[in-house]
Design a protein that fits this description.
This protein has about 900 residues and is mainly alpha-helical. About 55% of the residues lie in helices and about 0% in strands. It is built from 40 helices and 6 strands. A hairpin with a 2-residue loop joins strand 1 and strand 2. Keywords: Signal.
Length: about 900
């Protein structure tokens, strides 16, 4: 199973690169609802499930038991705490111990222990002094291979060869012989084995183990530390089988050295775990060998787990195998992103075929067309390589109607039929794991298996059974208690068919901790600050917010759905009208519930004057629809608009400083400081050039109401006057209609002033100016998570500009003017072609051996359609006005027009 999952993990990275940054981390791409680290034996924490690192690292190192410190703590009759013992053994300066030996010390801990401490533990303190003396040298000397690809300069660090070999061996042997306490004696034996290993005297190391360590019958912490060194020496002599077996013994018996022992086994013998299984004699050894086999080859761990179960159903390592399997399932069922039918990466897969009163029919439909980007073609190549098949359209529709996330109330938010991770094999594995867990919970005395069984039933959408299991569990383990509590909350919320006011009150009364933000902790000192490129790890709180956002979306409460994951100011990035209206309705809603006030409404952030903010968005949309009267009415309410909310980011030392942007008096802020060049025409297509370089002003002498610099209210008023004048049949009306057409084109996605009516501050490139595939399409199929990452604004209606140009063309008597108008009409018609092209992408699979041939044929077909249906005004310009000065000038400044005229 693992091999299949891993191939899909590769695909996930390709997908995430298309939308997210290059720092994609798979361990941040699911919700972490089942806490892996609740296993009781924390020595196995490194072996929990992780894709980002070789070993699991999401824990504090202090959680892993240190049997060496525990042994010292016991040796000192528990006079010291674990932390004090660790400080004495591993961190205290050698000078402090020498001072203690000499009868005087300023060390606070040693003073606390009193003057009788050294005489009582003389051998132990003398050993620690010797060990601390040796420790800086206890590294093996690095020997550069003559065939090494990299050259490494000699490192200045000390190693074991810096000590006098004979003198050190003599001293350690003498100290060993003089020691009376067997434990201290064995520790000197360990130093002898280690020193010989690190000086590459491998045979001497093996002999030292036999002579100085093994005869002392203790098999405690120090014995396995010495055995670890023995195994290293055996590896140095190429005694792979013996080395691996001893590393295995260290892995099995040591709590703090499991990770290093595992790595050593891998380095020692490529067939390491199979060979270990052959040598395993006791049930404990067989059980551990099965664990290593299952851990290393995670195809389908259940057969291995069955064998482990037969040996010991209470085995802690069996729980590790189970939690890794649960985590693998969770990643596949609960990703923070999903992929829609058209491969558009949008939000968390928390949607469903709803049975609520107000279904989102349009949003739930499968998009009619498929947009294929370069990255998506690459993904298809890898899918073919790994044998991952696309669903048929019928299968896709069945998935959407039957198994997308929250099919209320009996479906769980884990519904990835659109996600390439999820398939029948995954479902079968869930069924098999549930059967195994149900069986094990009956045999094992550990409540862990009941919790695991309840979680698997949660994944299978059986919330009632999951809750019943959880309610019957009695445990005093605080980690288990927290997991049970969290899962009860999940079952309660996810099983709700509709979120109404009563249920919102229930959320605040019983589950506020999962929704109310905790006060921010004081920032660390700048020297401790580490930038997290991935953000916070997704949590239960994030998952529940997504579930509620999806519920509101399905219920038709888009404003609430939006504000669960976004702020009011985020509307500037995608100011589409229906969503804005829903957000405004929620803002103005009287008698909000406590949940609405404290959890949702808190995201109504500072946008200056909120009424003006909404009015500008509505006025802009009316302008794009050429409804200038409606636009003026909205802009009249927007005169207190303080500017599109933007943040300035500045670095202050090691921290980033964020301040609201303050617009200058003459700076365009979304409402004011609009040049009359917006009525002009462009001489070349260069969005980054200054307005005076790209745009040419028309003759406004007949229209004194067009000011050199206007706000949007004045602009709308000017357009109303132009529209009135344009109803005539004279030269002035011709010019008026031409100017209106110019403004509509110049503020479209193709125009120099494309930013004016989409809540943007400049015309630099961005998603707002893309052409979407259908007039009714919206990328928000499930809710509005990652709203600012996916841009959607209602498409331009280029016919509005063409209609005004056509009025001007019909009344104009000037041939040069007609040529200019026709070129502007042709430019708008080009926009219509771009929209058509986007609606009709190539569906040729990138892995098709005839991809190039089919793609060329498709492009020829597009060119034919373009010339037949979208070159009407270019054709008129070519056949009737090629002799005009305007046409000749355009051929020099517009490359595609010049190409067409040839």
């Amino acid at each position: 199973m693992k091999k299949y999952f891993l191939s899909l993990a590769v695909l996930s990275l390709f997908y995430s690169k298309t939308e997210a940054c290059a720092w994609s981390d798979p361990d941040y791409e699911y919700f972490n609802l089942f806490t892996q680290s609740i296993i009781k034996d924390k020595s196995y924490l490194p072996f929990l499930h992780s894709y980002s690192t070789r070993f699991y690292t999401d824990f504090k190192q202090s959680q892993i038991p240190n049997e060496n410190v525990d042994a010292w703590k016991k040796f000192f009759n528990n006079q010291l705490t674990f932390a004090e013992t660790d400080y004495l053994v591993n961190k205290m300066n050698i000078n402090d111990l020498n001072a203690l030996k000499n009868g005087s010390t300023n060390n606070q801990l040693l003073t606390k222990l009193g003057s009788g401490f050294y005489p009582k533990y003389k051998e132990a303190i003398d050993y620690l002094i010797e060990a601390k003396y040796l420790e800086p040298y206890m590294k093996i000397n690095y020997v550069e291979s003559p065939d090494s690809f990299y050259y490494r300069e000699s490192e200045g660090s000390q190693n074991a060869t810096n000590l006098d070999y004979n003198k050190t061996i003599t001293a350690l042997t003498s100290l060993y012989n003089a020691a009376k306490n067997p434990e201290i004696k064995q520790r000197y034996g360990y130093q002898l084995v280690r020193f010989n290993h690190y000086t590459r005297n491998y045979e001497a190391a093996i002999e030292a183990f036999k002579t100085y360590v093994e005869p002392i019958k203790s098999r405690g912490a120090i014995y396995f530390m010495a055995l670890d060194q023995l195994a290293g020496a055996q590896r140095g002599l190429d005694l792979k089988s013996d080395a691996n077996w001893n590393f295995f013994q260290v892995f099995m018996n040591s709590k703090s050295r499991k990770e290093s022992a595992f790595v050593s086994m891998k380095l020692s013998d490529t067939a390491s775990f199979n060979n270990i299984m052959k040598r395993a004699g006791t049930n404990e050894e067989k059980n551990m060998a099965y664990f290593l086999l299952g851990y290393e080859d995670f195809n389908n761990p259940i057969p291995i787990m069955e064998k482990m179960f037969e040996i010991d159903p209470d085995s802690e390592i069996l729980k590790v195998m189970a939690v890794r399997s649960i985590n693998e399932l969770e990643r596949n069922y609960l990703p923070i992103y999903y992929y829609t039918n058209n491969n558009e990466k949008t939000a968390v897969n928390v949607s469903a075929n709803t049975t609520t009163d107000q279904p989102k029919t349009e949003a739930a439909e499968a998009p009619k067309e498929e947009k294929i980007s370069f990255w998506q073609k690459i993904v298809r190549f890898f899918k073919k390589l790994f044998g991952v098949k696309d669903k048929t359209s019928a299968e896709t529709k069945a998935d959407q109607s039957d198994d997308e996330l929250l099919d209320n109330p009996n479906r769980i938010p884990v519904f990835n039929k659109n996600n390439y991770y999820y398939d029948d094999q995954t479902k079968d594995f869930l069924d098999d794991l549930e059967k195994f867990t149900s069986k094990t919970k009956e045999k094992s005395k550990d409540e862990y298996w009941q919790i695991a069984d309840a979680y698997l039933k949660f994944l299978k959408k059986d919330y009632k059974a999951s809750t019943e299991i959880l309610s019957d569990i009695e445990t005093s383990n605080p980690e288990y208690q927290e997991q049970i509590k969290r899962m009860k909350v999940l079952n309660d919320i996810v099983s709700q068919p509709k979120i109404d006011a009563d249920f919102e009150d229930h959320l605040m009364k019983d589950y506020a901790e999962y929704f109310v933000d905790k006060p921010e902790e004081p920032k660390k000192d700048s020297t401790e600050t580490e930038y997290n490129y991935y953000g916070e790890v997704p949590s239960t709180k994030d998952f529940l917010k997504d579930v509620l956002a999806n519920r509101y979306f399905l219920q038709g409460e888009d404003g609430k759905s939006f504000l669960m994951s976004n702020t009011l100011s985020d509307l500037q990035y995608n100011p589409n009208s229906s969503l804005v209206k829903s957000v405004e309705d929620f803002y103005r809603k009287p008698n909000k519930t406590k949940f609405e006030e404290q959890i949702i409404a808190k995201n109504i952030d500072d946008v200056g004057n909120i009424d003006a903010f909404f009015a500008v968005i509505y006025g802009d949309r009316a302008m794009r629809q050429a409804d200038f009267e409606k636009a003026k009415a909205y802009y009249t309410k927007a005169q207190n608009f303080t500017g599109i909310p933007r943040i300035n980011y500045d670095w202050d030392g090691n921290s980033q400083k964020k301040t609201p942007h303050q617009y200058g008096a003459s700076e365009y802020n979304g409402f004011r400081s609009i040049s009359d060049l917006v009525f002009g025409h462009n001489v070349w297509e260069s969005y980054q050039s200054m307005p005076e370089e790209s745009m040419v002003k028309e003759d406004f002498s007949q229209f004194s109401f067009i000011k050199p610099m206007m706000n949007k209210l004045e602009l709308a008023d000017a357009l109303i006057q132009l529209k009135k004048i344009g109803s005539g049949k004279d030269e002035k009306s011709t010019k008026a209609n031409q100017l209106i057409g110019n403004l509509l084109y110049n503020t479209s996605s193709l125009g120099y002033y494309r930013q004016l009516f989409v809540m943007d501050i400049d015309n630099t490139n961005g998603g707002k100016y893309n052409f979407w595939s259908t007039d009714s399409e919206t990328p928000y199929q499930y809710y509005y998570k990652n709203f600012t990452n996916t841009t959607f604004i209602e498409p331009d209606n280029f016919d509005l500009a063409i209609n005004y140009y056509n009025k001007a063309l019909n009344t104009s008597t000037d041939k040069e003017q007609k040529a200019r108008i026709l070129f502007q009409m042709a430019s708008a018609e080009q926009g219509k072609y771009y929209q058509y092209e986007t609606k009709n992408p190539s569906n040729v699979d990138y892995s098709d051996p005839k991809w190039s041939e089919k793609t060329d044929a498709f492009q020829k077909q597009l060119d034919q359609i373009k010339n037949q249906k979208y070159r009407t005004y270019f054709a008129m310009l070519k056949t009737q006005y090629a002799d005009t000065e305007t046409a000749r000038n355009l051929m020099g400044s517009c490359s595609y027009f010049g190409y067409f005229m040839k």
